[in-house]
Structures are given as structure tokens and as C-alpha cells.
Specification:
mainly alpha; globular; transmembrane helix; two-stranded antiparallel sheet; choline:sodium symporter activity; Na/Glc_symporter_sf; 2% strand
Amino acid sequence: MAIHVEGLLAIVIFYVIILFVGIWAAWKNKNSGVGEGKDQSESIMVGGRDIGLFVGAFTMTATWVGGGYINGTAEYVYLPGYGLAWAQAPFGYALSLVVGGLFFAKPMRSRGYVTMLDPFQQIYGKRMGGLLFIPALMGEIFWSAAILSALGATLSVIVDININMSVMISALIAIFYTLVGGLYSVVYTDVVQLFCIFVGLWISVPFALANPAVSDIGITAVKKVFQTPWLGTIHPSDGWMWADNFFLLVLGGIPWQVYFQRVLSASSAAYAQLLSFLAAFGCLVMAAPSVLIGAIGASTDWNQTSYGPVPPIERDESDMILPIVLQHLCPPFISFFGLGAVSAAVMSSTDSSILSASSMFARNIYQLAFRQSASDREIVWVMRITIFVFGAMATALALLTGTVYGLWYLSSDLVYVIIFPQLISVLFIKGTNTYGSVAGYVFGLLLRIGGGEPYLKIPPFIYYPGWYEEEKMHHLKKDVEHIVVQRFPFKTVAMLASFLSNIIFSCVARYLFESGVLSHKYDFLDAVVSKHSKEIMDKTTLVGNENIILSEMAPVKTKIGSTLEGTFMNTDALCDEGETSPDLNNEHK
């Protein structure tokens, strides 16, 4: 196929701008956050904790507004039988940011953590921190791979360039400026990328709407013209499945390092909350053009376009409805603006996911689990190496596997089922320990895997109430696939089971050891008897030695007493007995 020179030129110009901004941000902030007892590694991870309101709002919005977000929203609005009613990502992730801001941003930022895994290692120990790192890493890597794969397909649709080449170049640019500038490069490029997404898609919408092949989307929203109405419906029998997926987005969107990376980089706990609320609004605003493009795709007579008489759904190309609309319903010079928007969205997600994965590995696995005496320079080099390694892994997955979306769906489910209940327990539930954490991990994993995963062709071994078998037609291959659909909200049930298992097994383990039913020598995890051993890292381990600077902690006074709040707030995570943060004392003198 012939390469579209104009489209290729537009991509090159855009990538040069992004690369320039990333390098400029690294140079501008090369000494920010370093000095006064602060380490360069921490500056790379959380940007010196001085991210302002304007830049912070953009980068927090970019937590979820990426390639999967804008493409996936358009796809579900377009899909016959689904429509806007099933396009849950905009409202789900917006509510996720609101819930995160209300309940999680303040305790995480005020305690001065550096990564999401810090509280787990503080309470449950380094081994459990390593176990929880696995689903967190899988989520970040597979998410990056999925959106890189989507980018390759998008570019091949519009400019006819080689998919492998486009994926590798995009990944290399994102890896390079992340290597150079860390979080500063990520957040400043987020500003440019979100601006490009907003402008590029909104410029395309009026031209697509004005195309003669497109019917009035107000009519096709409620009336069948070329396909079922794009508003969609939720059948009563699918209500529990819809709710299960919605809770997955709202609650499962919280325990991600890409989110807490932004929270922990805020200049104070109050700022972290405000940024979450602003980003929730930003998610809804950024979804609007994708919803319209999906509606346009559902309202188009494709026989009148250069795409041909067979609609995208019958070519198994519904996942590419956004670039298809840009190419076939907009003038060429307009579609290239939209192409830049899609490229921006992908890079916006890839860079932060790679940085998040490398931050957790360098700090929580390499430093806190294996090399507590590692120098700051050593940690920086570990981060740089893992940024490249994880970026290469995501790129290889995008190029070599056809099930990358299935891998991401499963890993995101595991983040919801395993990490979210553990995060609630470690922040708000008093008395949970490593035994309960292990039990919750195992129960959540078994109940989720037991439900199967159609995208990966993993059959279920637990058939929940309401399951049925569905035939899925592959139009291009002309074959039929039989998949098991679980209508029961088994993901949320698995999450609740994991949460309750943590509490119950923690209480049982504590009773058995403290009452003398089991000898102290059987406390092999040092979770009850040896509460203050080196395995369960206390506040000195995590906060001392300049790993987390107490002076970084926002002046938020936490009231702990014998009230209901004191019962459910884990005071061990706040401060050592009889001690408070020096900043808190100064604040209230």
C-alpha cells in the first residue's frame, strides 16, 4: 500500500514536538526536588512533590484518558446491541477519580508514601509486597501493550504505514523522554498530548457530522436506521453484569500506580484531592468527542463512503471505528489532526505506565526487599534500566501476541479483585496482618480465574448462577466461537470475598498466636508475634534513611481516638505509638 506522505509528515511533526517538550521538561527541572535531603530517585518517581494545579490537573486527567479510553468509548457507542448505555468508561473512571480523591488521596499523600506499594510493605512485609507487585506490574505492562497495539492498527488504517515500525517508533520516543526526565517529562508532555487530543478530535467531529452519508444522530439515537439505536439498552437480565463491570471501573480504577503517582507528586494532600476532582471533570469532557464519533459511525451509510458497502462490524473492525470515521468521513487534512490526537492519547498512557512499573520495581522490590543499603545513584540506574526493559516488554507484547487485550482485561480484573480490598484493609482496617493478606490474595485469585476469560480462551471451572453459552461469529474467518457468559457479578463477589478473607483470617491468626493455641515458633511470617521484626517494616524502615522524608508530609492532622473512627483507622500506618510527625506538631503549635 502507498504511504500517505501528508499523514506521515503530520505524525513526524507531532512526535518531534512531544520529544522536544519531554527533553525541555527534563532540562528545566533537572535540579527540582533534589537537595535538602531529597534524592534524585524520589524526584524521578514523584517529581519533588511540587506539581502545580494547572499541570497537575492535566496529568491527573491523563491517568485514564489515553488510546484505550477514546477508542474504546467510540467502539462501544458504535457497537449494535451495546451503545452509550454500555460505554461505561467515561462515567466509571470519572467516579473512580472522585472516590479516590474523597477517600484515598488524602491518607496516601499525607503519610508521604512514594509508591502505591509502600503501605503494603509497611504493614504486611516485603514478601507480601512482592506478591502484590505481580498484578500491579501485569496491569501496567499489558495496558501499555494494548494501547501500543491499538496505535499500530490506527496508523495502518489512516496512513498505510507498517504497523511494527509505527509501534516501535512510538514506544522508543515515549521511553526516551521518560528515561531523560522521569515524572517531569511525563507530566509536561501530558499537557501537550491532552491539548492535541481535545483539539484534534473536536476539529474532526463537525466535518464527520456534515458528511452526506451520515444521518441525523438525534434520530439514530432512538430509532433504527442502519443499525440499532446508538443510545443502547440494558436488558434486565444483564443488569448484574452491567453493575459488575461498572464497579470494576469505579473501584478497580483506584489501586493503580499511575493514579497514585500523580497523587503523591502533588504539593499537599489537599491539592491531591483537588486534582482528582478536576481530573474527573476532565475525563467527562475528553470523552464527549469519542461518544459523538461512535454515534456518527452508527449513523453512517457506509455504502456511500470510500470504506465500502460492508460496515465495520461485519469486518470485525468495530474496535477501529474512530480512525475509520476520521479517514472516510473527514477531509484528509482534518483526519491527520485526528490521527495526531490518537497518537497523543497512546503516548500519554504509555509513558506513565512504564514509569509507574519501574518506580514500583526499583523502590519496593529492589531497594526495600533486596538492597536496603542501595545508594540513590544505584536506584536511579535501576529505574532507568527497568524503564527500558518494561518498555521493551510492552512493545514486544504489542507486536507478537494477538491476545494483548485479553491479557489486560484479566490483569485489570486482578487489580480490582486483589489489590483494591488489600488497599482498603491496609489504610482503614485495624489489625489485618500478612496471614489475612495471603488468604485474601488466594481467595480473590481463585474466584476470579474460576469465572474464566473469553478473550484468552480460558474456560471457567466455576459456573456462577445465570451463566449461558453464546455464539460469537468471526466474520472474516467465517467461524463460530462458543463462549461462556457469566451474568452473575462474580468479579465484585470475588473482591468482597478477598476483603472479608483478609479480615477473618487476620483475626483468626491473631487469636491463635496471642491466646497460645499455636506456639509462637509457628508464626513463620513474623506477622503477629514478631510484629516489629525486620520483616514487617515499621515506619523507621519506610520513612527513615531519606526514603520518605517526613518534612514532605502535608500538614494534615489525623484525629485518632476511641471513637468509631479510631476503631477502623489503622493507626500503625499513621505514626508510631506516642509519636507524631514533626510537621504536624509545628502546624498546630
